[in-house]
Amino acid sequence: MDPTSQDINLNSPNKGLGMKHAEDLSNVPAEGAVGNSPHPLPPGLTEEETEELHTELTKVEEEINTLRQVLSAKERHASELKRKLGLSPLNELKQNLTKSWQDVQTSNAYKKTQETLSQAGQKTSAALNTMSSAITKRLGDMRALPFSNSFSSNYSIRHSISMPAMRNSATFKSFEDKMGNLKI
């Protein structure tokens, strides 16, 4: 069967049949039809007007089919040209994403968001720096206390007993080193 004579209208009752077969079927009365006419007359139209409308509809459907065939041929040709140029769907996707990302970066919303995040980062950095300084100072104060002062009224016995062990632990030293070196 010649593909150009195929009815590719997806809504057509003759879908997949050659145009020659579709014409043969147009002469067969529809199931349940009354009289010799394949289509009952719509109210308010004469037989002649109905026939003209059917003829025009047939022409429009043929034009649609022709356009679909032309579009399909053009798409195949474009695909072949892209293949010859080495353009793949993945490359096209990459190019589209790159262009979209550039569009986003130049948008006002992105710039405002970037500025806001930059300000938030600066404030967070300042807060962490202040906190680091306070912790470092407190650790320095704790280191400076002699062991005999650990029994003063400010410290509990439990605290003073565990303090030397805690100071000598690897975790405490690692924490102290990191906090001492943390300068933002």
Automatic annotation (TrEMBL):
Map out region (Disordered) in residue numbers.
Answer: 1-54
Family assignment from sequence similarity: Belongs to the TPD52 family.
Q: Which residues form a coiled coil?
A: none
An example Gene Ontology cellular component term from the record? cytoplasm
What is the recorded name of this protein? Tumor protein D52-like 2
> What Pfam families does the annotation carry?
TPD52
Polar residues: bias regions: 1-14
Q: Where is the signal peptide?
A: none
Task: State if Metal-binding is listed as a keyword.
Answer: no
- Organism for this UniProt entry: Iconisemion striatum
Q: Which UniProt keywords apply?
A: Coiled coil
Give the organism's phylogenetic lineage. Answer: Eukaryota, Metazoa, Chordata, Craniata, Vertebrata
